[in-house]
Amino acid sequence: MMQPVFLPVATAFAMVVLSACGRGYDESGEEVPTPVFGAEERRGSVDLQPLTPDDLAEAELGGDLGCSFSSSVRDGPLLAVRARVDTPGNTPSFAARLAGAIVTGKADRAGGYASLADGGRFSGNGVLLEVAVTGDREPESSPAASRPAAMRASRPDGSRQIFQGFWICGV
Known about the structure:
The termini are far apart. A hairpin with a 5-residue loop joins β1 and β2. This protein is mainly β. The protein is 13% helix and 38% strand. The longest helix has 15 residues, at 6-20. The strands form two sheets. It has an eight-stranded antiparallel β-barrel. Strands 1-2 form a two-stranded antiparallel sheet.
C-alpha cells in the first residue's frame, strides 16, 4: 500500500516558507526587516507633521500614560496616544498633525494603556493610522520604552503612506 507523499512535502515546503517570514537580506547579506504592511506602493501623500507641545495641549487627550510614534527618537511625535492605566475598558485617544491641522480620534479597540504595547489602529477625522511594532526595545531608550515600528497612514481618498520609526511608550 502506497502512502501519500503530498502531505509531508507540503508540510516541509510550508516550514521553509514560514521560516523566511519576517526576515529579509540586503545585497551584502545583512538581515533587514521585512515590511510589516506588505509590499504595497505608496499612493499619494499623507502630510503628517510632528506635533508640538502646544498641539498636544490643544488636543486634550487625557489619560495617565501614553505612547507615540516618531520617525526618530529625537523628533517630535507624528502620532500621540494617551489612555488610562487603571481602566481596561478605556478607549485610548490620539492626536496627529495632518496637513497643518490637529486631528483627533480614538483607538479601534478599548483596553486602556495596556492595549498600546504593540501599537494599534487609530481613526478619526478622515485618517486611519495603524502602528505595528517591528523589533525589540532599544537599549538606550530610558526611561520610556522605544521599539522600532512602522506606521501606515491612510486617507479616504485612497492616499496611503508608510512611515518607519519608533513606538515609544511610557510617556
